[in-house]
Amino acid sequence: MSRKRTFTYIFSLALLVFASIVWLLVLRPVPPKPEARVSVSPQESPGNTGVTAQAPQKPQFPRIEQLDASGGEGRISGRVLFVDGSPADDVEVRIKISEAPGSVITKSESKREPVRTDEAGNFAISELPFGMYAVVAHHERGTDSFGVGISRAQPARQVLLVLKEGAVISGVVEDGGGNAVTGAILSPIEHDGMEEQYYIARTMSTEADAAGAFTTGTLPFSKWRFFVEAEGYAPLYTDEVGAGSEHVRFVLVRGAVVNGVVLDAATAEPIAGLTVKARTKSQPYRVVHAASDTGGRFQLTALCTAVYDIGIDDPDRVIVDGQTQIEVKEGQSAPELVLKVGLGGRVLGRVYDSNTGDGIAGAELSGWPKAGFPTSRKAPATDESGEYALTGLAPGENYIRINLPAGFPQNIEAQKVAVA
Questions:
Q1: How far apart are CA 279 and CA 237, in angstroms?
Q2: Could you report the per-residue pLDDT of 249-268, keeping only the tens digit for each?
Q3: What pTM, to 2 d.p., does this model score?
Q4: Cα angle vertex 69, ends 36, 134, to 5°?
């Protein structure tokens, strides 16, 4: 009888343990994770621009990556090695923030003073505003570059640079008459069919002297193409040139000119001091600027044979009427542009936790048009209510992107919004 009672006790205890495990692993309620929701409310802008929300779709990002800058501080560190694996000491490391068209980065100082590696090949650069950076290491024995982004989600990044052996390329930049083109900028934009990001290429660029002569820094042994630009000339995307080449000759031609006028859409009065911008889809990294005079007139120069998107540089106003795309043809004059400018549309809404309904503070929203010049807009960070106001949006379809604070989902897909 005693054994039977002992067996019953052990069996009951085992059953209780099993039930506890099932409860902990299967049946126990799990507290919900924070989940952000974004509401987009139809509103009326001062210019009667209605806004409606549509289902999220895959965004069409500009060719150069956009990275939201929030004014925070980050750090980029790393190590530079030679190809044999030994540390590269006393090597200059340069860094430059992206100035890509459509970027929402608002850092006025785009370059930082170069630093040098220590005996172990290590380097570190701190107090950097969030953004996309080119990191380039230069040495007589080789060079290497890397693009890296720092953000609120990833404020510190590390990179490894390996100096690849190479040689310089030298030559001259001239016009069609054999005259030197002084001050031409040559950026190594492609090697062996692989295209560099423009902000990296510009960090490795070379400037022609008064005689039009140039000598690049050490470039890895490869076939290189250059993007050559100079004031008053159409940009040139060169043929391939091997590292180590000498007596290379690049020829630039005078660029086309497009004239126009900027008017207030409501009053038809000319607008002075407004910057008009143009860029091609084939060269999205190059933007041509021109400021309007007291009569609202402007002149875009150094244009190549291509189709250009037209935009303006203003935080609140957009082109509401006029030709926002032009085609420049060789030997033909482009028609004068008449751009009517007014207040852009706006999107008002709220960012909140779907589990609690509470607003989320510190959320950052940016928007850019699906088509045309990729001018980005940025709303002030949300407060405790989670409410936001994104203004200055172009007519037509726009994408709205959100960066959430730590503890909430990251890399949220952009939401598509139609601005009438």
A1: 15
A2: 999 998 888 999 999 999 99
A3: 0.62
A4: 130
